[in-house]
Each structure stands twice: as C-alpha cells, then as structure tokens.
C-alpha cells in the first residue's frame, strides 16, 4: 500500500514538471533502464539495444514476450518498469495530447505567429472580405489566406486559412502576420459603415502603419485598399498605396451602365466572379513579342484574349505598335488557358 501511495506521489510530481524537463527525464529513464536490464541479465539481454526493446515493449504495455527476465532481480526491475515506466509514458502521452489541444486553441484565437510566405493578408473581417477570400481560394488553388481582426476566435475554417488576432496598426501584429512576405495586403472597411470619413481615416491609419513597417524592413508591401469616397484618395497618396477600390464609385458606375446597356451589369458581375469560368489575369511580357499583334495572336492560340495594357483598352487599334518594356498586359481566359500561358511567355 505504501508503495502504491509513493508511486502516486511520484506521478503527481511528474505531472507538474515542465514538458521539456519531462521529456529529458523520460529519455534518460528509458536509456538507463536499457543498460540496467542488460547489466542485470547479460545472457537474456546481450546488448543495450535488446534491453531497450524490452523496456519499450514493457512501458508501452505491448508485451511481445520475446524477451523476459529470468532472475529474481531482473523480474523485480521489470516490476519497477511496470510501476514507474507505464505511468511515466502515460503522462508523456497526456502532455503531448495537451500540447496539441493548446496549439489548436491558440491557433483558433489567432495568437500564433504565421511563418508562411506568398500569402494574402486580409485586414478586417466582413461580408466583403469573406467574399474576396472565397474568390481568391477559387482563383488560386495554392492561395493561403490570413485574416487580421479583433475577433476572439477565427471566423472561418479552411486548410489554407489562418487568423491573427490583433491591431493591424501595431508592428507586433504585422510581424506576427509576416506581412513582409505576403503577396498582397487587402484592407477592408466594416460592413454597413455609414461614416465614410471615419472608415477611410481608419484605412489610412492602417496602410500608413503597413508602409511604415515596410520602410523599416527595407522591403515593399503591395497594398490594396477599399475606400468609400473617391475624394479621399488624395489623402492616401503619401502612404504609397498600390491600388484603390472605391466602393461608392464602383456601384454608381455599375448602375449607370446597367441603365444604358440593359444586362451589362450581369455580364460584368459574371466576369468578375470565378463562377463564369474565365478570369482577368495579368501576363508577363515575352521577349518574342515585338508588337501587340505578336502577343495577341500567340495568346489567342492558347485561348486567351489580350484586352489591355494597364488601363489602356485600345489594343485592337494599336496592334502594330511596339510593346513597351514596362507594359502590363492583361487577358481574359479560363484557368486552363492561364496554365498554358506559362509555356508561352
């Protein structure tokens, strides 16, 4: 009875030991036990490896029975392995399971550092950002999405989704999200925001913090910002924002085009959505292409339609002109055609 109580006290002490200390103690216990049983019964356990085999099959309760001690002292030591080793291994396994639980909880709460690269960072969780995330996952089959927000738990579950809880104007949060290695950072306003000045002011504060962090890290971070009023764009110039998406302006333009050319809004919405089966994609300029017509004809063969050079959509009127070195060529094509373009340019 005293022995059992003594063992319980040892187990209680073991549970309170730190994980790394417990791991080291367990390893030392298993290795030393392997040499001890070899020393006690060298004929039954001719080397330490055979002793280790016996120790592991004993403490894991596997018990193959291919090696068993024959002497009294060897069997007493075997009993100690049962009493101490099985409890010790059980505690180690419990600690491992507990660690996985802690890791999962911290990940759901957005408290773990993201170590990936080439991901898309979305700042601000809303219906708009959720829709954008789904489109990114649909368009780019390798896309990894990371959301920064103040929610207590991750708002979405997906194998390529990560969450960081924190203030996007805080450098520690930006470091945790590894924004310097991100492919792009997208800043959204909240749903049903009526105060455009406050909303755009918050977005300005966020992108200023991001660009300031980029300067500090001596790198460039591609930023795309949703703005409610186009008149606020001038306030963002010093922040070096790469692209603006004006919510009010986009809606107004869509309504006007739908009124003049009925049904045009449906076509535009389908083109912007991955459901249509085609996307607007940017392609790299190829050394083989001298004129726009060279690019137009070669891309056409793989099912891609060259539509613009940057914001210039007058490609058909300038097919014989030379393509400048800084050209930004965009095409409309299916995902399959876009994969073929990799073999063209």
From TrEMBL:
Domain RCK N-terminal: 117-246
Keywords: Ion channel, Ion transport, Membrane, Transmembrane, Transmembrane helix, Transport
An example Gene Ontology CC term for this record: plasma membrane
Keyword Membrane: yes
Membrane topology: Multi-pass membrane protein
Ranges annotated as spanning the membrane: 20-39, 45-64, 76-97
Subcellular location(s) per record: Cell membrane
InterPro entries recorded: K_chnl_dom, NAD(P)-bd_dom_sf, RCK_N, Trk_Ktr_HKT_K-transport
Domain of life: Bacteria
Chief place of localization: membrane
One Pfam family matching this protein: Ion_trans_2
PANTHER family named among the record's database cross-references: POTASSIUM CHANNEL PROTEIN 2-RELATED-RELATED, POTASSIUM CHANNEL PROTEIN YUGO-RELATED
Protein name (record): Voltage-gated potassium channel
């Amino acid at each position: 009875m005293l022995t059992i109580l003594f063992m319980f006290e040892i187990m209680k002490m073991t549970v309170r030991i730190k994980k790394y200390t417990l791991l080291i103690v367990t390893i030392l216990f298993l290795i030393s036990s392997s040499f001890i049983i070899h020393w006690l019964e060298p004929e039954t356990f001719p080397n330490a490896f055979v002793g280790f085999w016996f120790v592991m099959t004993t403490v894991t309760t596997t018990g193959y029975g291919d090696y068993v001690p024959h002497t009294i002292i060897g069997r007493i030591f075997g009993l100690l392995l049962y009493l101490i080793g099985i409890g010790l291994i059980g505690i180690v396994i419990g600690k491992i399971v507990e660690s996985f639980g802690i890791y999962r909880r911290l990940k759901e709460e957005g408290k773990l550092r993201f170590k990936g690269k080439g991901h898309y960072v979305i700042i601000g969780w809303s219906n708009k950002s959720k829709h954008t995330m789904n489109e990114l996952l649909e368009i780019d089959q390798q896309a990894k999405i990371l959301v920064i927000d103040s929610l207590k738990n991750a708002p979405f579950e997906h194998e390529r989704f990560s969450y960081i809880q924190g203030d996007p104007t805080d450098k520690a949060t930006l470091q945790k999200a590894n924004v310097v290695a991100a492919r792009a950072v997208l800043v959204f306003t909240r749903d049903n925001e009526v105060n455009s000045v406050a909303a755009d002011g918050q977005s300005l504060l966020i992108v200023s913090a991001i660009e300031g962090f980029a300067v500090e890290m001596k790198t460039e971070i591609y930023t795309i910002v949703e703005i409610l009023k186009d008149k606020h764009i001038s306030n963002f110039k010093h922040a070096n924002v790469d692209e603006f998406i004006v919510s009010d302006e986009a809606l107004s333009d869509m309504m006007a085009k739908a009124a003049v050319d009925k049904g045009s809004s449906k076509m535009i919405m389908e083109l912007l959505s991955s459901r249509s089966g085609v996307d607007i994609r940017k392609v790299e300029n190829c050394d083989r292409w001298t004129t726009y017509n060279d690019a137009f004809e070669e891309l056409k063969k793989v099912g891609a339609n060259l539509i613009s050079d940057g914001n210039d959509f007058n490609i058909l009127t300038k097919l014989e002109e030379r393509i400048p070195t800084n050209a930004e060529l965009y095409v409309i094509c299916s995902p399959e055609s876009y994969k073929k373009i990799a073999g063209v340019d």
